[in-house]
Amino acid sequence: MFRPFFWGDEEQQHMQMNGDRPVSRIPPEAAGIVHVLKDKSASELHRLLSDKNAYQQFLLSLDTVQNQIRLRDELRNETMQLARHNLEKEPHIKELRNQVSSSLSL
Question: CB of 47 within 8 A of CB of 54?
Fold first, then answer.
């Protein structure tokens, strides 16, 4: 039978089987976000859930998200530079292919 996975199910199963305390499995990057959310009032949290713009602004205000955006942009720029560099080599590669084809046909 299919049973959907919910956050915390794994910890609850582990506790039931072993009687242990739950182990926090929050990634370090998310810990800062959780801390910020814990400081919000119920009405602020409700607004984040119901107002798409407020949610977007909240996400963009987080250092973790800003760092990811910056990293994405840097990687995109580096990829574009490499692509341009490769395209600049294309005429030379075509010329070398022609030379190889010519020498093989002799």
Answer: yes
